[in-house]
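Comment thread on ticket #2218

A.B. wrote:
> Attaching the input chain for the structure job we discussed in standup.
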Amino acid sequence: MDDRLFHRRVFEAVGGLIPPGSRIVCGVSGGVDSMVLLHSLAKVSEIHDLNWALSALHLDHKIRADSTRDAEFVRLQADRMCVLCSIATIHVAAEARRVGKSMEAAGREQRYAFYAEEAQKADAKFVAVGHHADDQAETVLLRIIRGTGLRGLGAMRPIRRLARGSSIKLVRPLLELRRRDILEYAARNRVEYREDATNADHEAATRNFIRHRLIPELVELVNQKAIDALVRLALQARRADDAIRRIAVLRGRRMMMSRDETAIVIDAGRLAKQSAAVGGEIVRRTIASLGVDCELGFERIEAVLQL
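C.D. wrote:
> Ran it. Output below, let me know if you need it in another format.
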């Protein structure tokens, strides 16, 4: 894939979603994905005269002894590109112990909290991250193995709200591009980046097991286009989930009989006539609209429908 096609794919992914003149903060780890993200967004803005104001965000997780070098590298590269850069530090291992979560989960939560805070400071409505198609395939497999429904099978969306109720949008301009395309782009354009040693450690996270062992074996032994197939599956799942949600919103309104601050009464007879997919979504949305902030499992939704 040449640069012209690469830039077109990035523009098609987010160009129509991000207005000219927008402020965009980019999560930049210093790895090839995020460095290419920053470089390609700057080029797309220049090519299409979009006048995007880009800035780089880096959160030092203090997982590795040399992590400060990553932060220094990101700051240096941002300076060379005349891009503002904000850097913060968190001891993610200590944070993971405090909240009782894995380092991967705790690190992700802290990263996105940092992105939200810095986006608000910069008056930016968009946060860009460097997830690509290979990441998407890994996410699909991870969720299947751990257990997921149709919504989870849809994996990462190209654009979504950064957090519930937030006006800031999270965008993934590289989501339809393969990692090999990103590496080739970096080589052609001499985009400098740093390798993260933990990405090669199979024991660092479950995702690395999927990345370095499971997917390569699937590609070699089962289907050479396994990654493309998983990405297509995620797209089809998102489309189906979106359709079910639209139907559930319309029908749920019609069968609501009354509501107050603590309860919503819906017509059980009309609910029972819905397909399981639509009925389950109506139940889920009804409970969520009461301000219940929890994920209801498949078994509980099924129990309501059976009742």
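A.B. wrote:
> Thanks. Noting for the ticket: DSSP finds 13 helices and eight strands in the chain.
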